[in-house]
Fold:
Amino acid sequence: MRLVPLFLFLTLTLAGCQSTMQRIADCEAGDWRAVGQKDGAAGEKSEFSDRKDFCESYDKPGGGDAATSYAAGWASGNAEFWSSRGQADGHAAIPLTAGWDRRTASEEVRKKSTPLSQPAYEAGWLQGNTDY
Structure:
């Protein structure tokens, strides 16, 4: 019985370590647009300053404005986040308004405080509904 809590602890520790390792790899790559894209696509808020603070020890110098690159990538990722959910709902023939209302009230969105993008959701929904 003592092995179950130990197993859960190790599993959670390794998952957290893997996440940190991925964030470090993102920093070392120095591609702020890609970092923003990942954050947006994961439903995360746009928090360049937090990412920049984390990356200070790992960031390789790159050309251009890191904040602008991150913001552009994040906007693209956030649109992808909402479009993919809209596409799934449209493909499942869930009515547009009902699907949007359900998604915006979901635990996933509330937990991450995901910024909303109804135009991206609707574009995805139309594509999914057309495929339906």
Observations:
- Confidence is low (pLDDT under 50) at residues 10-15.
